[in-house]
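Ticket #4471: structure output looks truncated?

Reporter: J.K.
Steps to reproduce: submitted the chain below (475 residues) through the standard prediction queue, then opened the result file.
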Amino acid sequence: MHWFFKLSSLRGDLEGWLRGKNWKPFVKEFALSWVGELEDRAITRDLDWGVPVPLEDPDAKGKVLYVWFDAPIGYISATVEYLPDKWEDYWKNPETKIIHFIGKDNIVFHTVVWPAMLMAHGEYNLPYDVPANAFLNLMGRKLSTSRGYAIWADELVNSVGQDIARYAIALYIPEKDDTDFNVKEAFERTNAELVDSFGNLAQRVLTFINRNFGGRVPHPHSLNSEDEGLLNYISEKVSQYERNILSYNFRLALKDAVEVSNAINRYFEHQRAWKLIKENPDRAKTVLFVSYQALKMVSALFYPYVPNSVQRLWDYMNLPKGRFDDFVKLSPDLAGNNIKEGSVLYKKVDEGKINEWVRVLNERAGGERISINDFKKIKMVVGRVLEAERVEGTDKLLKLKVDIGSEVRTIVAGIAESYSEKDIVGKRVVIVANLEKKRIRGIESDGMILAVTGKDGKPVIISPEGEVPEGSEVS
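Returned output as attached by the reporter:
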């Protein structure tokens, strides 16, 4: 006996709710494609590990909940644990917006299954938005932590610093399509956009005020058309930036910030304050007042991406705490403000370090060479798939029964993106037969199916040509 969730009874409610959502198109389309085929789904299984079914019913003994069912409930229970007196403000207040930031492999659970659970129970807020991202690849290859082909966050931060690392990654957020993180291009762009544009702008403006105005923001005289043109441009870009942030287009918002920084640099260069200080001191005061204000504004745009360095900049600028809206508007009262002697915000990632990262990743991609004796330890045999079924709660895993001649093995393989249960049955495959057994989603898997990654990024099994008997060894 098992307990089921009557998903099929919620098809109409889910479809109506989804069609009213202004979500990322690929997220909404994917969710709707599932709703039409919803079937009742078991929420319990016979297993010796997992969350026990919380019922006194004797039939519940020895049964646990499927992870797909109990895991999202953890969102609520974690809020209760962290905010025992306020958790209902987050989950029952209709003014609250629940937003799930996830990867595309979790879309169905957060846009269909989890909302259906909330609908069936009642009382709780449904997700306001699910801005799922696609996958991030690395230097033309799939990331693989099991194979060691990855960049770990701590090693990247230790190498280049937290904000440089954050900026480089932000350039490649896979917001719509799978995106390839190219370490050389990432650091070169970071050097140009963050260090040379924004970091250099801050250094030039603050250094000039310290050297020529005794560390006090000068009082402006009348603003001319160039001053007002710059401030109007920033105001327009701020509005565009806000729209991009609120629609989860973080890469476009970062592009807005860089364009504003570049515009302020052009303004400062064109005004030639270093000449004005000698030839027209009053005009120099106005230029530096406008530049200081513009730096304050653009710093707020960079803050979500590089918060530590921007906080340091605000300290150098001696700015009072405030909200985003306070930073992106003109603040005449800051004329006469005393600033501090600051240090350089960023250091470029030098070419030697960039080349070292390229070398390390190439090495990780190739892996270490093994001896012929090590290779001989690997036993690969030909098998034929007898049965296949989906592993509940996953989009990628199939549970296979594979005949390898001497026995029939149970193997869990991540090939469901490429092969349906019907397609894979009868196919000959090559398996690694002497791997240690491993429990995957509660199933003991005894072997590994060999596959390669196709052009579309999906697995393609390796199969021998011709009629090869089950159990034949690969040599």
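Triage note (M.O.): checked the attachment and the full token line is present. DSSP finds 17 helices and 17 strands in the chain.
Status: closed, working as intended.
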